[in-house]
Structure of UPF0102 protein RED13_000441:
Amino acid sequence: MRQISGDQAERHAEHLLLAAGMRLLARNYRCKQGELDLVMRDADTVVFVEVRYRRRDLWGDAAETVDWRKQKRVIAAAHHYLLTHPHLANQPCRFDVIAAIGDPADPASYRWLREAFTC
């Protein structure tokens, strides 16, 4: 059940970003350094998106789980992605977080944090 909800949250986050005019470049990009949930294109900017889902907020907000360790892994995976996609290497980049709490199918449970962290 946990994996299904996480996958649902990623799909709904992707739809949210597509509806905002972004274009999907990659989904669940994996490398030795880590995983990128979504890689999107927002005009000329490459956006690395971390999607976090929690069923309840008893132990804090979903966005709070993107601590410095997770940020470090996402940044390393983004660096690898850019090395393997050299045509994007000179484009501006940003790191967004989409946090959801509650029903993963409810659009109101999603919060989009643009430029959630930097490297």
